[in-house]
Design goal:
By secondary structure, this protein is an alpha+beta fold. It folds into two domains: 12-62 and 130-296, 3-Layer(aba) Sandwich (Aminopeptidase); 64-125, Elongation Factor Tu (Ef-tu), domain 3 (Beta Barrel), CATH 2.40.30.40. It contains six helices and 19 strands. The strands form three sheets. An eight-stranded mixed β-sheet has the order 1-2-12-3-13-17-15-16, sandwiched between helices. The chain has a six-stranded antiparallel β-sheet with strand order 5-4-9-6-7-8, with no helix packed on it. Strands 10-11-19-18-14 form a five-stranded mixed β-sheet. Strand 18 and strand 19 form a beta hairpin. The protein is globular, with a radius of gyration of 19 Å. The two termini are 29 Å apart.
Length: 297
């Protein structure tokens, strides 16, 4: 999945991959979900299992760059920008592998043997690195969040999974997904399956992170309910308190619907770079925590 181009606004590659994967694998899942997509949902996908009480949100877009005029680039979301980063894309003239250039005034350009057509979207060249403890590649945020949702789907009996778009640029699909889940299914609880940061308070290898807050403020009674469920299970977990950053949860909080949400995800190093790095034990912890919460909430 890390090799699929799907920057915000052009998620169709991930949408097609997910539809193909879901349709090929769903017969092996414990419950056959209703698959909702297409008209009215843009590039989003919603899976409905049994009688849902809680929804998982996993955004399928990534950060990247848009070609402007001549050799200029414009950011999509907040990618890390360093000279020499390899970028890939396609225009009508063929495949592109070029280099990012950053000058002393932080102007962004590309270095390629021809002019790239304006409007072309470029993303990091994926390079998968794996050892006994870590996986490293671009777009762990949020391909791992999607991977987590797909693993939970294998045994999920009651719940919803919403594969959303535009998260990296501040939302754009969550408002209508929230309306759908609330009005049609009366679901008022959500978990945000996304990837957070390794910080001085959140190290690698100590378990999945339950975020108590970032730039958004989830309702504390709901967060406490999640913490208590996990604490009683005895599984490892970490608590996060941040003043910045955001997710699909922020859009849920600003929606017109009384939906509680909490960001629950593994921590990564080198955020929004070509070398995002996550500990394997934290990935396992995330999957097991989601399975527990979808059963108990």
């Amino acid at each position: 999945m890390c090799g699929i181009q799907a920057p915000s606004g052009h998620e169709v590659g991930m949408t097609q991959f997910l539809l193909n994967y879901i349709n090929s694998q769903k017969t092996n899942w414990k419950v056959q979900p209703q698959i909702i997509y297409g008209e009215g949902f843009q590039d989003c996908i919603v899976l409905v299992f049994g009688k849902p009480k809680t929804a998982i949100y996993a955004h399928i877009d990534s950060i990247g760059y848009t070609v402007r005029y001549h050799n200029q680039l414009v950011k999509i979301g907040g990618p890390k920008c360093e000279n020499g980063f390899k970028l890939i894309g396609n225009d009508s003239k063929g495949e592109i592998i070029c280099e990012l250039k950053v000058d002393e005034d932080d102007n962004l350009t590309y270095d390629f043997n021809r002019e790239i057509e304006r409007g072309t979207m470029l993303t990091f060249l994926p390079e998968w690195i794996e050892d006994d403890n870590f996986v490293q590649c671009c777009y762990m945020d949020n391909r791992l969040g999607v991977f987590n949702a797909l693993k939970v789907a294998e045994t999920l009996e009651n719940g919803m999974i919403c594969f959303s778009c535009w998260e990296e640029t501040g939302g754009g699909s969550v408002a209508y997904l929230a309306k759908f889940m609330y009005e049609k299914y009366q679901v008022v609880q959500a978990l945000i399956s996304d990837i957070t940061w390794v910080t001085e308070g959140v190290p690698h290898g100590k378990g999945c992170v339950i975020s108590m807050r970032d730039s958004g403020l989830p309702r504390r009674s709901y967060v406490n309910k999640i913490i208590n469920i996990v604490k009683e299970s005895g599984m490892p977990y970490q608590l996060e308190v941040e003043s910045s950053g955001g997710s699909d949860g922020n859009i849920l909080q600003k929606s017109a619907f009384p939906i509680d949400w909490c960001f629950v995800g593994a921590p990564e190093a080198d955020v929004h770079s070509p070398t995002e790095k996550v500990h394997k034990e934290d990935i396992k912890s995330m999957i097991e925590m989601y399975k527990l919460l979808m059963e108990k909430l």
